[in-house]
Amino acid sequence: MQSPKMPNTPTALQLLNWVFRPMPYMEECTKRYGDVFALKLQKKIPPIVFVSHPQDLQQILAHDTKELEAPGDLNSLFEGLLGKRSLISLSGEEHQRQRQLMMPPLHGERMRAYSQIINDITTKVISQYPVGQPFNIRTVSQEITLRVIMQAVFGLDEGLRAEQLQQKLKEILENGSSVWRVVLLYFPALQKDFGPIKIWGRQQKLQQEADKLIYEEIQARREHPDSSRTDILSLLMDARDTQGQPMTDVELRDELMTLLVAGHETTATAIAWAMYWIHKLPQVKEQLIAELDSLGDNPDPNTIYKLPYLSAVCSETLRIYPVGMLTFPRRVKTPITVSGCELPPGTPVIGSIYLTHQREDIYPQPKQFRPERFLEKQFSPFEYIPFGAGARRCIGLAFAQWEMKLAIAKMLTIRDLDLADRTEVKPKRRGLVTGPNRPIQMVVKSQRQIKSRSLETTTVG
């Protein structure tokens, strides 16, 4: 048996490659070392093993076994933002408890109840932009998803606390998206201010101010309970575990931050990428518009959600440049063999979602955006894994898909849009996830109206 192959370059150089060019670096490594390789990113932590073959992914992700576990302590990079009681930071029974408490508000009829919020906010945001004025579509999608989060999760629409919290959260996420912020996470010794350079201190201050507002909102809800409220915060406050115990204030704060980061930032990026590809490829836009127009006025959200081509476009968007490059890590408990490589106890193992989605044997011509591949074939849960798999699968995946489809459909239905800059956009690291390497500039060409299943286009000023 052999150990996974890995670069023989210094740890610091491997880390720099990983921080500044993670996707090209993973592709270079898999080309040189195969489906299983390792990277040494921190001196005190064993080399991290990366896998991307579906069989290997199933072996490590399907569920916790006597050989593998999904410990929250390996997600410590998220802890400063999300907290120690976040679903992402917890392990074992504590993780299962939190997951069970959080599931109901994010699925089924509860989730569908947010359809009107999504449609109304999308209409209001995209209607702010006049014909001919270029705008960054990611700015639009961020505003949509943040407002949706504020209403659906926090139950806050207007008022001083809502405005302050929205602004603080926006700043926290924008600051956290910096690649230099990632460098600080990997080097704890740098997590302090250096004279006039206050990157770390500024982020900590913003976090404290946001936390104060969140705890004030939780306290206000406890003092004045309202059983008619259906926002996720209210539902989580009412939730009880199998022992009849509710979430503590700290647990509520940490899960709200988790939903914000996982449900706002990632969905905003996915919507922006989808709009880029739809307008980059005329045949995609034409087919999608025809499918949406066939529904006529005011289609049912369930009908929109089930549209085959819209679903294929969203799936291909999440395949080609997945917002989350990696699954959450597992740790080896007893020796296992993965594709001929022996992994000793203590080894961290990560699934590379990006590499899996770029496999030629699963997705021919993987660099091409081709939604039809999702109409021609049904991929297994370990061939297509934009939301991860197993015990750490994204809890908000249903909500994210719902919001993504409804927001895209609404924008395309009420506005005729186009790219203002048609040069190619590539993915890059954005904090701990990915995003476009430059602003995706778009422009409103005209207003669209659907009447009697026919298209009318009118220019608006």
Kindly describe this structure:
It contains 19 helices and 13 strands. The protein has 461 residues and is an alpha+beta fold. The termini are far apart. Helix 7 runs antiparallel to helix 8 (137-152) and helix 8 (137-152) runs antiparallel to helix 13. The strands form four sheets. The protein has a five-stranded mixed sheet. Helices cover 49% and strands 12% of the residues. The chain has one domain (11-458): Cytochrome p450 (Orthogonal Bundle).
What is the strand and helix layout of this fold?
Blueprint: H1 11-20, H2 22-33, E1 36-39, E2 48-51, H3 54-61, E3 68-69, H4 79-82, H5 92-102, H6 108-112, H7 115-126, E4 135-136, H8 137-152, H9 160-176, H10 179-186, H11 199-223, H12 232-238, H13 249-280, H14 282-293, H15 301-305, H16 308-320, E5 330-332, E6 336-338, E7 341-343, E8 348-351, H17 353-357, H18 373-376, H19 397-414, E9 415-419, E10 427-430, E11 433-436, E12 441-451, E13 454-458
